[in-house]
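W.,

You were right to be curious about this one. When I first looked at the sequence I had no strong expectations either way, so I just let the prediction run and decided to look at it fresh. Below is the sequence, 93 residues in total, followed by the output.
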Amino acid sequence: MVAATISLFFTTQEIGAQEETGKNVATAPAPSAEFKEIQISELPKAINDAVTKDFPGTTISKAFVNQDKEYQLFLQTEMADKAQIVYANVKGK
């Protein structure tokens, strides 16, 4: 009985440590292979304006573009652990 109690104690401690390790880790999904990362400053003004209007309280954390000038944007808020991915054309649509 003592051995079972000790075993249960260490198992519970290990589970608790695993739970604590995974908290507050901000992750973003990997971009599609067809998109190439660009600097956020390279985005067309129409895209920045559309993000500001349509997604208040978010910032663009990463930006990617493909050869068709379609943009993949990673939007981040202070409260979210993961980035939200949105797509736009050069006109911000």
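Here's what jumped out at me. The radius of gyration is 21 Å. And, maybe more interesting for your project: Residues 2-21 form the longest helix (20 residues).

Coffee later to discuss?

I.
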